[in-house]
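Rotation project, supervised by the postdoc (A.L.). Task for the rotation student: set up a whole-complex structure prediction and record inputs and outputs verbatim in this book. Inputs entered:
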Amino acid sequence: MIDFAFQNPTKIYFGRDSLQNLSGEVRRYGNRVLLVYGGGSIKRIGLYDKVMEILRAENAHVWEISGVLPNPRLGLVKEGVKLCKENDVQLVLAVGGGSAIDTAKAIANGACYDGDPWDLFERKGENTSVLPLGTIVTLSAAGSEMSDSSVITRESDMCKRGRNTPFNYPKFSILNPEYTFTLPPFQTACGIVDIMAHMMERYFTRVENVELIDRMTEAALVTVINNAPVVMEKPDDYNARAEIMWAGALAHNNLLSTGRTGDWASHKLEHELSALYDIAHGAGLAIVFPAWMKYVLDKDGEKKLAQFARRVMHVEDDFGSDRETALEGIARLEGFYHSLGLTTTLHENSIGQEDITRMAERAIKLGGGSLGSFVKLGVSDAEAIYRLAL
Amino acid sequence: MIDFAFQNPTKIYFGRDSLQNLSGEVRRYGNRVLLVYGGGSIKRIGLYDKVMEILRAENAHVWEISGVLPNPRLGLVKEGVKLCKENDVQLVLAVGGGSAIDTAKAIANGACYDGDPWDLFERKGENTSVLPLGTIVTLSAAGSEMSDSSVITRESDMCKRGRNTPFNYPKFSILNPEYTFTLPPFQTACGIVDIMAHMMERYFTRVENVELIDRMTEAALVTVINNAPVVMEKPDDYNARAEIMWAGALAHNNLLSTGRTGDWASHKLEHELSALYDIAHGAGLAIVFPAWMKYVLDKDGEKKLAQFARRVMHVEDDFGSDRETALEGIARLEGFYHSLGLTTTLHENSIGQEDITRMAERAIKLGGGSLGSFVKLGVSDAEAIYRLAL
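Outputs recorded:
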């Protein structure tokens, strides 16, 4: 275990009646509210009306930023910042998934910064305060509801940048599993893959003597795997949705990072896939992560991958060697992704090897010359991983 | 899973170099510091000198409350409150285990309340603010370093009262496993039992569909059980001490309570043992918890106890019935306590049945007519449990 600092101040309201807590939070932070959301889904499920009803009961003044898309853009952030500054907004309230929340985070920070909000993502400036931020979650995936990170894309050059700061922790997040009942199966599946990836990026570490967090991470992975078929089969199963929703928040709130360094190469390699082809993040991770595992297996990765295979994928301990055990674990993970209706190869997405070098070079360049820490990857390693994903 | 609210704002600094963060915290909260500690152990291990050196470097004004004993007393709390009020103390800093921390919590709250600090424990008054509180932990057991609770005893009638309030969360806690190297084996053992009890009180719940937190709790229990023999054998094993120390904080920070109700009957039944006989809290729990398990087994407790036996005590699943599996799990838990050098019966402590009725009546009365929620206990149930512990 390595030395660490850990703090997560976000207040979680979880459950069927969790939305009622919004009133108290508005009273606490102020009733000049900027609502940030995506498309029509929050209107379709009636959540928009319920939120507005609560805000009206608090005599709130409400401004809106809507139309947030996946890979949320700087343009909307700037619009939101302007609204906040012009109207003395007191609370930024995201309703949606990671994109709405990340947009709201960028707005809440940008509203307390004099220059271009993009400066903050390029580390050209720092805000010293932040507007209070709340979230109402409708998608279990990104874990942004309890995380210190926000990822925004600048449209002009499609440059995607993340920023981690304690200012990004929401003051409160409202998680009601019912809001995820009507998600399309593909989105549910992608969310499950993303949640597991957040856990696995932290799990695959070279830091030794991390038994507690290893085991807690395995516990969370097993829970997601057990509940995934239930929600795929029965999207309105409250209990299974609840397990996945709480796991999704804990996956990314940094508890599972304590005492260790994570890897995160698979996430970065996937970003190139999503950037170049129109592949959803979770769907891309289902392709990249198994390939990454196969590659690092032979780079002194056998022991940890075999532990993963045994404890998470329940591979019986009779495969003769860590390597065989690990390979069986990876195969079962691929089988699990298939069971969610996802693909695990580039070919299944009509993608060949033509862009592999380009993606590898870009990913490594963006990583500052290398990616990952479980195995430090250069361009040829990244190429090999994409090739294993063919 | 039941609806819940969860927030834990305490900042954790963990590891060999964690003490260095004290400087920044003093700069943040103020350098008029009240130090709260127990006896000589923090001086013996050189920690007192190190803390004073850091405080001196920050030009701190330091007042001291020392001599805190197990089951910490109201008298010292009052002395501390007086010091805080007279000297405009800005930071209350506990150095020690649960007793020093609980005393510091009571002082930090009492300093912001006009009346007798005992009022707060009797719910006769409420403070609306609290002095910033920091802790430096030297004993893994009570988990007070990351909890919202504080337990104080009034000397005049030996009345023991707990108070849970968000004001009790320390602003920061410094956890260096090295500070636990020189603990006597008995104290280490009692701490391990206490940590596991905090997990098990939360684990034994009637709330269904709590797979994530069940599995994370099992992960933490298994980790403590695996590392316990290491620290008993080799008290200065950093890695094993670190696993137990972090598990001890997470055991009681309410994460493992999310979505469920806990039981806590065993804790209350143990308090009577400690009150009447001179038994340490952890040593008493090693006696009471197995007896409680045996009793609730036949009150529809088979299923959860069998799950505990399989997943935590690694009982093979071939005992023919949940009941047999559960009994084997309880036997292995007793065996584990013995392996720590602890006893699991009253007789081994020269305690007979003479006070059983008295303890049972008192415990149930203090519980307001019943104890526990996994099984709701009355006086005859409590008596039966004490008898099973004979």
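Student's summary: DSSP finds 14 helices and eight strands in chain B.
Supervisor addendum: Chain B has a mean pLDDT of 96.
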